[in-house]
Amino acid sequence: MKKFIVPFVLGLILIASMPSCFHRHDDFSISFSDDDDEFEMEADYPRHKSHNVKVFLNDQLLNHVAHKGRHSFKNEEITLDDNTTFYIDAAPGEVNIRVDKDENSEEGYIRVKELCQGLKLVIEEH
């Protein structure tokens, strides 16, 4: 009986570790929430896509930010040149964008929503 315990335990360890062998390194999660008061995008993605995300955010936002200067997009409130204000928190492998509909025009809300749709495409790219 004892000689079966070690192979049995080793077999269980092998079986338990198998799912990690099939884990894709390009997995991501993107969710949108759109209610009467707020629009929000939350995304978790592979860290190797962080450069592309940052380039996209820079291209889309830096020329339209009301207050020029250095922007890290890390836990920051951004005001665009049309007075659209939204929250962004971007870190390697994750990003959260939130816009308050009551504090912004419909055009501003749509602008941020379109930004998020473009960001989704960047994250989904291979």
SSE diagram, text form:
Elements: H1 2-21, E1 29-34, E2 38-44, H2 50-61, E3 76-79, E4 85-91, E5 94-100, H3 106-124
Antiparallel strand pairs: 1-2, 2-5, 3-4, 4-5
Structure description:
There is one protein chain. The protein has 126 residues and is of the alpha+beta class. The chain has one domain: TATA-Binding Protein (2-Layer Sandwich), CATH 3.30.310. Helix content is 40%, strand content 25%. It has three helices and five strands, in the order αββαβββα. A five-stranded antiparallel sheet has the order 1-2-5-4-3, covered by helices on one side. A hairpin with a 5-residue loop joins β3 and β4. α2 runs antiparallel to α3. The longest helix is centred in the first third of the chain and has 20 residues. The radius of gyration is 21 Å and the shape is elongated.
Which of globular, elongated, flat, extended, rod-shaped describes the shape? elongated
Number of helices: 3
What is the level-2 CATH architecture name? 2-Layer Sandwich
The run of helices and strands is HEEHEEEH
Total domain modules: 1
CATH topology: TATA-Binding Protein
Q: What's the count of strands? A: 5
The major pleated sheet works out as: 5 strands, antiparallel
Briefly note the structural class of the backbone.
alpha+beta
Averaged pLDDT: 86
CATH class: Alpha Beta
Spans of at least 5 consecutive residues with low confidence: none
Q: Helix share of residues? A: 40-55%
Q: What radius of gyration results from the CA coordinates? A: 21 Å
